[in-house]
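User: Please predict the structure of the protein below. I'd like the answer in structure-token form so I can feed it into my own downstream comparison script.

Assistant: Understood. Taking the following sequence of 260 residues as input:
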Amino acid sequence: MYALRSLSKLVWGANEGAETFKLASGVLYEERPGAKVARKCIYKDSELCIRKTSTPYQYQLVAIRALEEGEDLSDSLDDERSFLIGIELKFTPTTFEGAHGFRWNDVGESTYEFIADESVTKSVREAFAMAVARCAWERKHRREYTEADAGEVKEIMDRAEDEELERLLDSVKLDDADIEAAVGPMSPVKPRPVDPEVAAAAAAPIAPPTFDLPTEPAEMADGEITVSALGELYMFDAPSGEFVQVAKEVALTVVEVGKY
């Protein structure tokens, strides 16, 4: 609760200048896929803060390098990295070698990670993540975050975490060696012995089904012949699901014996 009260005071409640909510100590890394050095330490000692801008409802996420003893601020031209806070930042919690921190995207191809010092507590990290989500909500809606419906701000956090999980799953590629290491070598499947009688029965030709054909009438019914044709006769065999020929040549006659 203290962290949340401090958050409200520092980020939204102050009127003088660009007040900040800080994570006091950590290491900043940059990841560039495809680069010669994929993961690079930018600041080995830095702080991460939220900074107000002169534009309403817009905030920056700023990583500031800590000055070494005896160093003057003007001695370095690369003493901070700033990022405009928005939903596209995809600000999410992360871990690196057991330490906790945050991960976010730059407008380019780079991804940044701030791994906090162990002195930064879980409650402070959670309050900071909520603050970033509130800043993203304000920028999107151009209103104070206090006007957001219940769950809207948290939805921004949850969506970013879901997309990060999808990214991690997509990055996992398993080859045959990985699968074998996990489940052990696959032993060849040995064929099961087959009973000779069963094998002989399976190999024997299947006799075609037989059908009892209706007897030919002694005389044709009186009436007008509408159709008369020669053809082959097939009947449906339910067990096999097929039509089977039962006669090569039959005569078909349709006689109209009355109305309907």
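That's the full token string. Residues 1-10, 12-17 have pLDDT under 50 and may be disordered.
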